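Bug report (template v2)

What were you trying to do?
Predict the complex of my protein with zinc ion.

What happened?
Run completed; filing so the output is reviewed.

Input:
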Amino acid sequence: MAMNRIQFQAGLSLPAFLAQFGTDEQCADALEAFRWPQGFSCPGCGTANYYLLTAGKHKNFQCKCCRLQTSLIAGTLFQSTHLALSIWFLAIYLISQAKTG
Ligand SMILES: [Zn+2]
């Protein structure tokens, strides 16, 4: 019988998770790195040049080329949420680490 590799992969302890994703800033940085591994690129025109807008709860980007504004969470699972990213990350961790999750 073939071994289920997912079942036997190393888990992440709660203290290790909290050290890595315990704050909103850490979660935002992780989400940005997951979303744009090569750095921000405009979803409208693909340009990498942007202005960082400070208004709002999350990072907002404005393309220097087409002026399209987008936020870090726009178009993601977290769009329109009022909860902090750290709460969402913790919920995802708890569900994904549970054997019945
Ligand atoms: Zn653009």
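What did the reviewer find?
Residues 50 and 63 are 4 Å apart (CA to CA). The chain has one domain: 14-97.
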